[in-house]
Design brief:
It is a single chain. By secondary structure, the chain is mostly helical. It has one domain. It is built from five helices and two strands; from the N terminus they run ααααββα. It has a two-stranded antiparallel sheet with strand order 1-2. It is globular, with a radius of gyration of 16 Å. The two termini are 29 Å apart. The model has no long low-confidence stretch (mean pLDDT 83).
Length: 136
């Protein structure tokens, strides 16, 4: 199977709204992962094998999620693209919460740790041996 906007949206239903995640943007990330026009694809089909579609979809979802954060930031007058780490503590009045992110992330993968899709992508990328191909 080749990943299309339709197949992507059927697996990742949280990205089903084309008003928020338009087809050209979804296709941009799908094509970036798989395009071989100017050299090897970012996701090598020979390494990914039958996990290629999953890798392409996780790669796409990660980038769409990062883009959505930037869009939401810009919509309220903020500066999109600013880097933020995971929330480790938050307090409102007498209620507080903190999260231990190191148990669900990779120590040496700050870019991919920004979304759950990126963490899953990197898990599979390392499984298929593609981790050494990506330069962070």
């Amino acid at each position: 199977m080749t990943v299309t906007t339709s197949s992507f949206r059927s697996v990742f239903k949280e990205f089903k709204d084309p008003g928020v995640y338009d087809d050209p943007t979804v296709l941009f990330w799908v094509n970036l992962a798989t395009d071989t026009t100017n050299g090897p694809a970012m996701l090598d089909p020979t390494r990914w094998g039958n996990l290629l579609d999953l890798g392409v979809m996780l790669f796409t979802a990660h980038h769409l999620a990062l883009g959505a954060v930037d869009q939401a930031t810009a919509a309220i007058g903020g500066i999109p693209g600013q880097l933020k780490g995971p929330v480790t503590a938050k307090a409102v009045d007498k209620v507080s919460a903190s999260y231990e992110a190191t148990r669900v992330s990779f120590e040496d993968a700050p870019f991919w740790n920004q979304t759950s899709y990126g963490v899953r992508f990197l898990y599979y990328a390392r499984m298929v041996g593609a981790g050494g191909v990506h330069v962070q």
